[in-house]
Write a structure and sequence with these properties.
The complex is a heterotrimer of chains A (about 350), B (about 325) and C (about 350).
Chain A: E1 6-17, E2 20-32, E3 37-41, H1 48-55, E4 64-72, E5 75-76, H2 82-88, E6 93-96, H3 110-121, H4 126-139, H5 145-148, H6 158-169, E7 176-180, H7 188-205, E8 208-213, H8 216-222, E9 225-230, E10 233-239, H9 240-245, H10 250-257, E11 307-308, E12 315-316, H11 322-333
Parallel strand pairs in A: 3-8, 3-9, 6-7, 7-8
Antiparallel strand pairs in A: 1-2, 1-4, 4-5, 9-10, 10-12, 11-12
Helix pairs in contact in A: 3-4, 3-6, 4-6, 6-7, 10-11
Chain B: H1 2-28, H2 35-40, H3 46-55, H4 62-75, H5 89-124, H6 130-143, H7 146-158, H8 182-216, H9 219-226, H10 231-262, H11 264-270, H12 275-284, H13 288-316
Helix pairs in contact in B: 1-13, 5-6, 5-8, 5-10, 6-8, 7-8, 7-11, 8-10, 9-10, 10-12, 10-13, 11-12, 12-13
Chain C: H1 23-33, H2 35-52, H3 54-61, E1 75-78, E2 81-84, E3 86-88, E4 97-99, H4 120-156, H5 158-173, H6 176-188, E5 194-196, E6 199-201, H7 207-216, H8 218-233, H9 236-243, H10 248-284, H11 296-302, H12 312-339
Antiparallel strand pairs in C: 1-2, 3-4, 5-6
Helix pairs in contact in C: 1-12, 2-4, 2-12, 3-4, 4-5, 4-7, 4-8, 4-10, 4-11, 5-8, 6-7, 8-10, 10-11, 10-12, 11-12
The chains are: A alpha/beta (about 350), B mainly alpha (about 325), C mainly alpha (about 350).
Chain lengths: ~350, ~325, ~350
């Protein structure tokens, strides 16, 4: 396998608070290959945002403590000076954020803000930067870019603002684009457009993408590989197919089982994962998911390492035997299925009896 | 834009009208004060008093008197003081205005510069020693009444230490106009400037620090950093630019209020004959024309300042501009 | 090697349900943890208590009969010797009569005498009573009235709001000191005083400056509270209450007021501080507290003529004001931080 573009090695991020030490990220290791799209899934508080913000060294809280390494093109980003990390921000690694309403400075025109990024990294004239800004606005699908380049952020809708953010982020052709829940604050229809845009830019420029989300549907749409995070740790990591069809961790089963599916018979209830995520100040002993896991057994008192059990590049942090996992997984994800192999066809899915073949 | 200007002008006129009417009637219902007698002097005979009463229209109904006074204030500008014989009020205010303007302007320059420096420093070194130190100074600044600070300043510079080289250059209390002697103008104003600015430095440094800290947590500042900009640029162009919106608005209002006569305490303590000083004298001697003139002058400046601030706010914050 | 792989029910180690906590209780807890604010509160209360004990000091400690009566021919004991309170030819210019300076003796003219031969230390405590009374009561009145008007304006909106806000704008357009001075001057020349409801405000009453100061700052408190009312009125829980059939009065007092209360509470210490300063300024200009009453402002004013010979008269009163107002400002900051829902993350150790 080629040299990964970004390699996070055992990253730990903690915050001192008056109530205790919050372990937001507790030993996370990830890899992104050039041009690859990695989806990071997890609920609020799982540490996914903090991980990627730490990669960019954007966490400036004086109470934060960092351990571990983040390798990017052979250098450890955690050890770079302020000047060096600034060169990489925006030019090597770019990031877009969740809320487009507040992520753009309201007092400057959007063209100015895009130009600001360009001119921070490249020696170009103002006119050249402006021309590029207009091109970028066009590339992200903003109509009348030559006029809108002089508009203020509040004159754009939410979806448009996110496009502007994307334009700004790719303006210096970064190797890696980190998208932190880029569609969470947008309508579902706009969501699809933004994802399509990210995919198009990725394909056009060969940019690697890390997409953080809590929405499995988004991940299914865009990712090549997926990492699942829980309570500051990665609990499962694998290819997209591998995760959806061969999930190895009970938490992932819970996530998949709780999705409402239109292509399956309707269950009586959606399965929910019982309980609440643990307090990051007082993490439980052993497996962080233990207290909520229906399959917990005595070995779960040790912290399970993230390992590749079947040698196929699919990592997981569950100590259950892979054989036993299959059976439990099917029960967890498909509660509508009985123990038998064949599916009984539910009656409401039979074709209407009146129609004959000719009438179809 | 045009509707805005028209509406504002109408509002200004209305405010000035209401205020002048209020002041007029407040003072005209004062018993025991007969303006005619005050003008005529203590030993004037009843005939002279009656003549003066007729001459000044003081025997006419109140609304007519009001109108007459307004006319002589705004149109013919020959409004005469009741307590100072034959002194024309409008030029008197005109003569007093430069003193007030000099005082307020100089103080404003000092306080804006120092407050911005203190606010940025406190925000930047938040949590370390400098931050609480500066904020305590700011708190003391807003806790000391300005006239008392002036007294302390006088005590130090005009009192025992006056003969030491430290303060021997301080002239006697009072104002020398710029035209008369720039050096004396400056020397005479430097201590009043510092005195007046202490209060405002305290206030504005705190406001700015709070704004900066609030805005530093905004998403767009995080975006600016993610773009790879230098910290200095993030601070100046992104954080400060937005923090200053409140600062500038408040400054406009305070500046207007001070020019309009709000510097009265400083002027009295340092014997600077500006508009505030004039107002004070007029009030204590119940010199109605001067009172009305100075109050109208002050109110006008306040409303003007409000308008400028509103316009300026739209210029500073594009979100507020009409579509 | 795994042992029994039985289905285990999710354990009871699930986090216990979060106990609901009253936001006021949370705020109180935050305030109690703020040591600086508590110290400021302590200082303020200390000053209040000292001033309340003014008669005790005057009678029992300093042995002054009526502290506010002139004592030009009186004597006192300094260093065991009996000396006249007003000394001939003392002070800088060595002319005329000069009151004695600070003696350092609590029982005898601790801070010296003023131009009328009065014990400055005793005067200081009595003056504090006036200043504090005026400051506190005017702040309470101002906040109460401003809140009521803001509730009415914000709740009913439309013409009512427009009219009330315009009136407030006009009051605020008056140059601050000019308004206070104008009204003061006017009212003070009415020898018989004016009648405001049950109160008969005469020139000698402390309620006159109180009312004036409360009035002058009405728009200052009104505006932010009205803004707060407007934003609360729009919230869904108000709509829900209306849907439940709540009448106007219930809406105003049960739904809107509690949510606006925190803003008002933050204003209180700040307004007390501001009003103390305004009162002292007015008294300094001889248009606030009138003789025979004294306040810190009148003491500073009386001390002006003695500034270069007996500075402690003015200085002591000024220092009292600074300490009191400083304490109130620090307390005000603490109260605001406590009521602010944004959590503060502090470094530990």
């Amino acid at each position: 396998m080629a040299e990964p573009l970004l390699e996070v090695r055992d990253l730990k991020v903690s915050f001192h608070t008056e109530d205790g030490t919050v372990k937001a990220v507790d030993g996370v290791s990830l890899e992104v290959a050039p041009g690859e799209t990695l989806g990071i899934v997890g609920e609020s508080g799982s540490g996914k945002s903090v991980t990627m913000m730490s990669v960019m060294r954007l966490i400036i809280d004086p109470n934060a403590r960092f351990e571990g390494e983040v390798m990017y093109k052979g250098r450890d980003l955690m050890k770079l000076s302020q000047d060096q990390i600034r060169d990489i921000r925006g030019a090597g690694i770019a990031m877009i954020f969740q809320d487009p309403m507040t992520s753009l400075n309201p007092v400057y025109r959007v063209g100015w803000q895009i130009e600001e990024q360009i001119r921070a990294h490249e020696r170009v004239s103002r006119q050249a930067a402006r021309a590029r800004a207009i091109e970028l606005l066009e590339a992200v699908g903003i109509p009348h870019p030559a006029q809108r380049v002089d508009d203020y952020p509040h004159q754009f809708s939410g979806g448009m603002r996110q496009r502007v953010m994307i334009a700004m982020a790719v303006s210096c052709q970064p190797d890696l684009l980190i998208a932190d829940e880029p569609t969470t604050a947008l309508d579902v229809t706009i969501q699809a457009q933004i994802l399509a845009l990210i995919k198009k830019l990725r394909d056009d420029f060969g940019t690697a993408v890390v997409l953080i989300t809590h929405d499995m549907g988004v991940v299914a749409d865009i990712a090549d590989r997926v990492a699942v995070m829980y309570a500051g740790r990665v609990v499962e990591q694998g290819s997209l197919r591998g995760l959806f069809y061969d999930a190895q961790h009970p938490y992932t089963w819970g996530l998949l089982g709780s999705i409402a599916r239109l292509d399956r018979p309707r269950p009586r209830r959606l399965t929910a994962i019982k309980g609440l995520p643990p307090s990051l100040i007082r993490l439980p002993e052993g497996c962080a998911f233990g207290p909520r896991c229906p399959h917990r057994f005595d070995r779960c008192a040790e912290v399970p390492p993230l390992t590749d059990k079947l040698g196929d590049g699919h990592l997981d942090a569950c100590l259950l035997d892979p054989e036993q996992k299959k059976e439990r997984r099917d029960r967890a994800i498909r509660p509508d299925l009985t123990a038998q192999q064949d599916l009984a066809v539910p009656q409401d899915l039979s074709p209407a009896p009146d129609l004959t073949e000719e009438q179809w | 834009m045009l509707t805005f200007v028209v509406r504002r002008t109408l509002w200004t006129v209305l405010v000035l009208f209401v205020i002048s009417v209020l002041v007029f009637f407040i003072f005209f219902k004062t018993p025991g004060v007969d303006p005619a007698r005050a003008i005529a002097g203590r030993n004037a005979s009843p005939q002279i008093v009656a003549e003066i009463r007729a001459q000044f229209g003081l025997d006419r109904p109140l609304p007519i008197q009001y109108l007459l006074m307004m006319k002589s204030l705004f149109i013919t500008r020959n409004l005469v003081s009741y307590s100072n014989q034959g002194v024309l009020v409008v030029p008197e205010i005109g003569a007093a205005a430069p003193a007030t303007l000099s005082l307020v302007f100089g103080a404003a320059v000092i306080w804006v510069i120092v407050a911005i420096a203190m606010g940025i420093a406190a925000a930047k070194f938040r949590g370390r020693l400098l931050d609480p130190l500066l904020m305590i100074l700011a708190l003391i600044g807003i806790s000391a009444p300005v006239f008392w600070v002036g007294q302390v300043a006088n005590l130090i510079s005009q009192g025992g230490l006056h003969n030491t080289p430290l303060f021997s250059w301080v002239p006697a209390l009072g104002y020398t106009s710029l035209g008369q002697s720039p050096v004396l103008w400056f020397k005479g104003l430097i201590i009043p400037w510092i005195t007046l600015s202490i209060l405002y430095i305290g206030f504005y440094a705190r406001v700015l620090r709070a704004n900066i800290l609030e805005i530093q947590n905004e998403d767009y500042v995080r975006t600016a950093r993610a773009k790879g900009l230098r910290e200095g640029r993030v601070l100046l162009r992104h954080t400060l630019r937005n923090s200053m919106i409140t600062f500038v608005s408040l400054f406009g209002l305070d500046f207007g209020a001070l020019v309009g006569g709000g510097a009265i305490l400083t002027e009295v303590v340092f014997n600077i004959h500006g508009v505030g000083f004039l107002t004070y004298e007029a009030l204590t001697s119940l010199d109605l024309p001067t009172i009305i003139a100075t109050v109208v002058f002050g109110a006008f400046f306040i409303v003007l300042a409000n308008t400028v601030v509103d316009v300026g706010y739209a210029w500073l914050d594009p979100r507020v501009r009409p579509a | 090697m795994a042992t029994l792989l039985e289905q285990v029910e999710p354990t009871a180690e699930l986090r216990p349900a979060i106990a609901g906590r009253n936001p006021w209780a949370l705020a109180g807890r935050r305030l109690r943890r703020n040591r600086v604010a508590l110290a400021a509160l302590g200082l303020f209360l200390l000053i209040v208590v000292l001033c309340l004990l003014a008669p005790v000091y005057a009678q029992d400690v300093a042995h002054v009969g009526n502290p506010m009566a002139p004592n030009l021919n009186g004597t006192t004991v300094v260093g065991g010797k009996v000396v006249p309170v007003m000394q001939q030819g003392g002070g800088v210019l060595k002319l005329g009569e000069t009151p004695i300076g600070p003696t350092g003796d609590i029982h005898h003219y601790f801070l010296g005498a003023d131009l009328l031969g009065r014990d400055v230390a005793a005067l200081l405590l009595y003056g504090g009573r006036s200043s504090l009374q005026i400051g506190i009561s005017s702040a309470l009145i101002c906040c109460a009235v401003a809140t009521v008007v803001a509730l009415v304006a914000g709740f009913f909106g439309g013409l009512v709001d427009a009219m009330l806000s315009r009136i407030m704008d006009i009051i605020w357009a008056f140059p601050l000191y000019l308004l206070a001075i104008s009204v003061s001057t006017e009212l003070l020349t009415h020898a018989s005083g004016i009648q405001v409801g049950p109160l008969h405000l005469t020139a000698g009453s402390l309620w006159l400056p109180t009312a004036i100061i409360a009035f002058v700052y009405l728009p200052y408190v009104y505006r932010p509270i009205r803004g707060q009312v407007l934003s609360v009125v729009r919230k869904e829980f108000v709509e829900a209450a209306i849907a439940q059939g709540a009448g106007n009065l219930r809406l105003i007092f049960s739904e809107i007021l509690p949510n606006v209360l925190s803003t008002v509470i933050v204003f209180l210490p700040l307004m007390i501080a501001t009003n103390i300063i305004l009162e002292s300024s007015l008294s300094f200009l001889s248009i606030g507290v009138q003789p025979p009453n004294v306040s810190w402002g009148t003491i500073i004013s009386d001390g002006e003529d003695l500034l270069y010979s007996r500075p402690w008269v003015s200085m002591s009163a000024g220092i009292m004001i600074v300490l009191t107002v400083l304490a109130l400002n620090v307390l005000g900051d603490g109260v605001r931080d406590a009521l602010d829902p944004r959590a503060k993350i502090r470094v530990e150790g």
